[in-house]
Design brief:
single chain; alpha/beta; 468 residues; Amidase signature (AS) enzymes
Length: 468
């Protein structure tokens, strides 16, 4: 049994096993995390609110169930936290914006409800970029989250607090959202795992929207296996969400599928993305070469996959986001624009000058690109590429138009609607983590998780934590 001062570094899978065997008290685990939050959060600003009293009450209920042999599953008693765009009944949900500074929902988001029903312990609400797009910003009521590997570094966004909290041991798992890469960026920069599931696999009901035709909700955790455990709880059809799609989980669930191995998997490498379209740093290029070697040693066949240039995917992605986000915020942007951060205004107000023809053409382009991209899965089971062009940059160096001024490696999966995840596959010479992105065909989430788990195991990256 681990000492109390290292409980915050347990994976969800390990903590669940200890709780089920009665070697770990859910109350002890919750207290360890809350103590860690009190000591460490002032340095990284991952939390906007900590629900300590409710967390202890939930942990006590989980401990009672443990003693009675009535645990509901692997998440019973596991401390989690949620990006502050997820509605939480009776707990302020701000989207990190003064626009919603006093917003207290009456009901939980469907995903939060499902995790609560599974016995998870909610620790609090986490920082994001304003309305999941406008950040990092220093002109809001709350500061931006900082990277626990180096607090002068950027976390990635927009699920910034989710990435920072999991990496720093302030939560064992979290929920983020991904419209253009907002789960995968912080997963890469903070050295954790995060998956954007297939569009429609996870309910978005009760989540503050950014771009309704692209928004996707998904889990973030220390390992791919932990993400799979969370996905087992939150995936599934929600008839009250018009974007929800009926689906069938893999036999035994996503967690079992994540451990099934990858021998024989056909892997396509999207080289043009990181070699030509947006040339990556030397350490990322080396990481990609190492990833190819590891996949071959694991029994995969590896080849080169080609597709349209990044700029085509990014143009469609950004046009759609800007138009839909502006439509959602037009009333407030035209009457009280000063209530938003400057970063949000720069990133969203361009949507106000777009024509209907521009938006419709972007959606047409999206369908065409998705068809061409998904055709690659006739030859390959998964595609791999870099998550970001380099390790986390300095927080102070982030520009207001970041994500608009140059393409990203993440947009193709948002356009194609399939699953994509980032896992930590190594570290740069300066000690910062590097992310590998794995992309699958729609509803091949289990295969993506299996590849992510295999890469983590082969790279040995999960034994290294930030020292904060």
């Amino acid at each position: 049994m681990r000492s109390a001062d290292t409980l915050h570094h347990l994976s969800i899978a390990d903590a669940a096993g200890m709780i089920r065997s009665r070697r770990l008290s859910p109350v002890e685990l919750a207290r360890a995390l809350l103590d860690r939050i009190e000591r460490v959060n002032p340095r990284i600003d991952a939390y906007l609110a900590v629900t300590d009293a409710a967390a202890i009450a939930s942990a006590r209920a989980a401990e009672k169930a443990m003693m009675q042999g009535a645990l509901k599953g692997l998440l019973h008693g596991i401390p989690l936290a949620y990006k502050d765009i997820y509605a939480t009944a009776g707990v302020r949900t701000t989207a990190h914006s003064r626009i919603l500074e006093n917003n207290v929902p009456a009901e939980d988001a469907e995903t939060v409800r499902r995790l609560g029903a599974a016995g998870a312990v909610m620790l609090g609400k986490l920082a994001t970029h304003e309305f999941a797009i406008g950040g990092p910003a220093f002109d809001l009521p709350w500061p931006p989250a900082r990277n626990p590997w180096d607090t002068e570094r950027f976390t990635g966004g927009s699920s910034s607090g989710s990435g920072a909290a999991v990496a720093a041991g302030l939560a064992l798992g979290s929920l983020g959202s991904d419209t253009g890469g907002s789960i995968r960026f912080p997963a890469a920069y903070c050295g954790i795992a995060g998956i954007k599931p297939t569009a429609g696999l996870v309910s978005r009901r009760g989540i503050v929207p950014l771009s309704p035709s692209l928004d996707t909700a998904g889990p973030m955790a220390w390992t791919a296996e932990d993400c799979a455990i969370l996905l087992d709880a939150i995936a599934g059809y929600d008839p009250a969400d018009p974007a929800s799609v009926p689906s069938t989980p893999p036999p035994g669930g996503y967690a079992a599928a994540a451990r099934r191995g990858v021998k024989g998997l056909r892997v396509g490498v999207l080289r043009r993305f990181y070699e030509t379209d947006l040339p990556a740093s030397a350490e990322v290029q080396e990481q990609m070469a190492d990833a190819e070697r590891m996949l071959k040693e694991l029994g995969c066949t590896v080849g080169t996959a080609d597709c349209p240039p990044l700029i085509a995917f990014n143009a469609a992605n950004r046009l759609i986001i800007s138009a839909e986000a502006y439509a959602l915020h037009e009333a407030d942007l035209t009457t009280r624009p000063e209530a938003y951060s400057r970063a949000f205004r720069v990133r969203v107000m361009a949507g106000g000058v777009m024509r209907a023809a521009d938006y419709i053409q972007a959606q047409r382009q999206r369908r065409s690109l998705a068809a061409e991209f998904n055709a690659l899965f006739e030859r390959f089971d998964v595609l791999v590429t870099a998550s970001t062009p380099g390790p986390a940059p300095r927080l102070a160096d982030q520009s207001l138009d970041e994500g608009l001024s140059r393409p990203t490696y993440s947009a193709p999966a948002n356009i194609s609607a399939g699953p994509a995840m980032s896992v930590c596959s190594g570290f740069a010479p300066n000690g910062l983590p590097l992310g590998l992105q794995i992309i699958g065909a729609p509803f091949a989430d289990a295969t993506v998780l299996a590849a992510g788990h295999a890469i983590e195991e082969a790279s040995g990256s999960r034994s290294r934590r930030p020292s904060i």
